[in-house]
């Protein structure tokens, strides 16, 4: 539930609404007048405002106009007198979302609040999608993939408040994209003239806390509105980790008086137990836990390599994607990118994954491409169905009950599909 505010100059009505919302488990902040409400409401974060129309000094329509001038996404519900149609119309023209006549029934107010919450959620969802699309279309690093983990990561980074979170922790195995994600975060939230400043952890002072603090703060102030990226953190001592944590209040004060916030991103493969829960943490999963992204990542890297080397992009078949998914990528995205570059430079299908295919000549490869171009819709559907099954079996290591729950199919349907595609659950155990 978004932030809910109630504005009315009658104490009895405020108390009644507060109690009704409390019973429903909804937090509400009440104000006796519009002036007080405007002082306390954070206009940068859209919420739901219920306001009486007739109040001294500033009425409900003026309050609605003021709120919407700061943030057009506020959902305002106005309370009018019984039968006061003209006032209700004026409020709606001013931008109010809904109106209720006094005296109102609590159930009607709750229904209006829930509808406003749904509307606000839809607005915020659309804003997130627009921002995400803009980031994916602009020049610079992109976070590729539609797996649930990647969708969540993009959303969390887009909505991140770097003023309130000056220290960020990116945790992931070797090659999971910590540097790219740091650049993506920088591009989202930093001033357009600021740069991402990489710092190897072994270059940070370790003699004493005062020297460490002075060094980090000088960099923080020098790169105001930008991002400091601390990498190779295996070199950080336990004292240095604690010194970084101790700097957080100072960094918050530094950002509070600046228009453009600065943040420090710490990239690590292992999180010391001493800092658990202390920093805003983002987990970057290995490819083995987001296999559904392998195909789109590989194609993205292949297109990029073809453009850089001024070569034609390779035709990547569905069978090739299946083999990529079945491969263990110990260095994750880094290794997959290297394989995509090799694929482009050699223009040989899967050169390092399948020795039999290394011996294919260009005529055989051409035949394969023609065969795929001539596939019917049914054949293509079957191929994608097979990919989905293989990905699910990999994720759940052949545990069919979990596969059935994820794909939301009956047991009989799942067994029929496995037989159709000649898939054996034992082939996916402990992989």
Protein model, in words:
- With 431 residues, the chain is of the alpha/beta class.
- It folds into 3 domains: 4-125, Response regulator (Rossmann fold, 3-Layer(aba) Sandwich); 148-285, Rossmann fold (3-Layer(aba) Sandwich), CATH 3.40.50.300; 376-431, no CATH class.
- 51% of the residues lie in helices and 11% in strands.
- The strands form 2 sheets. Strands 2-1-3-4-5 form a 5-stranded parallel beta sheet, with helices on both faces. Strands 7-8-9-6-10 form a 5-stranded parallel beta sheet.
- The longest helix is centred in the first third of the chain and has 32 residues, at 106-137.
Task: Jot down its keywords.
single chain; 431 residues; alpha/beta; Rossmann fold; 3 domains; five-stranded parallel beta sheet; 18 helices; 10 strands; 51% helix; globular; Two-component system response regulator; transcription; phosphoprotein; ATP-binding
Q: In short, what is this structure?
A:
Helices cover 51% and strands 11% of the residues. It has helices at 11-23, 34-40, 60-70, 85-93, 106-137, 148-158, 178-189, 209-222, 238-246, 248-256, 294-308, 318-326, 332-346, 355-358, 362-373, 377-395, 400-407, 411-420; strands at 4-7, 29-31, 48-52, 75-80, 98-101, 167-172, 196-200, 227-231, 263-268, 280-284. Mean pLDDT is 83; it is low at 348-375.
